[in-house]
Amino acid sequence: MTKDIFDCIRDSHSIRQFQPKQIPEPTLTRILEAGNMAPSAGNLQPWYFFVVQDESVKRKLAEAAFDQEQISDAPTVIVVLADPARSNERYSERGAQLYCLQDTAAATQNMLLAAEGLGIGACWVGAFDEAKVAEAVEAPPRLRAVAMICLGYSDEQPKEYKERLGLAEVVKFIN
User: Is the pTM of this model over 0.90?
Assistant: First the structure.
């Protein structure tokens, strides 16, 4: 059973402590499918998802991310990579520099929400050395590491809802 999307959005938060139990393959597949269904400029889908469960590779990823322990502790880490050349073919420099990053961010968010809906804890990691991450997963040189998603069953106590800015503070209607 999955949660309502608005509940997923409200309840999601970064999980950094995981149980050692691996995510069942059908559940992981659903999370990956959610990422693959994200919108993308021109429907180019300039993403690749490298699924890492190997302990030695996860350690390399953690080192590349300035020793963030949740990366090596998570049962699964998805490295989200962009293919700037694919976006460049249709949209030139703006595609390569911006659209492919927006597209992979949308895919990452889809996977985070799917994980929340399926009862899987997740943490979006963006602070890392791109070259070291690409080297750790043996990515082709044309791909750019954009995000890592740590996935697993939470080993944390439930957190309080984080206060958000009010809509009046962040929204401007132009009629």
Answer: yes
Compute the distance between CA of residue 145 and CA of residue 80 in angstroms, rounded to an integer: 6
Q: How far is CA 101 from the centre of its chain?
A: 12
Is 78 within 8 Å of 53 (Cβ atoms)? no
- The count of other CB atoms within 10 Å of the CB of residue 168 is 7
Q: Is residue 101 part of a domain?
A: yes
Burial 19-34 (b: 16+ CB within 10 A, else e): eeeebeeebbebbbeb
Residue 161 maps to a domain? no
Each residue's pLDDT tens digit, 99-143: 999 999 999 999 999 999 999 999 999 999 999 999 999 999 999
| 128: containing domain | 5-156
Distance CA 99, CA 6 (A): 26
Most distant pair of Cα atoms in the chain: their distance = 55
Domains of the chain: total: 1
Q: 26-33, long-range: CB within 8 Å, 24+ apart, which pairs?
A: 27/118, 27/120, 28/76, 28/151, 30/114, 30/118, 31/78, 31/111, 31/114, 31/115, 31/118, 31/120, 31/151, 32/78, 32/111, 33/114
Rounded Cα distance between 73 and 151, Å, is 9
Give Rg (Cα) of the chain: 17
Element (H, E) at 74: none
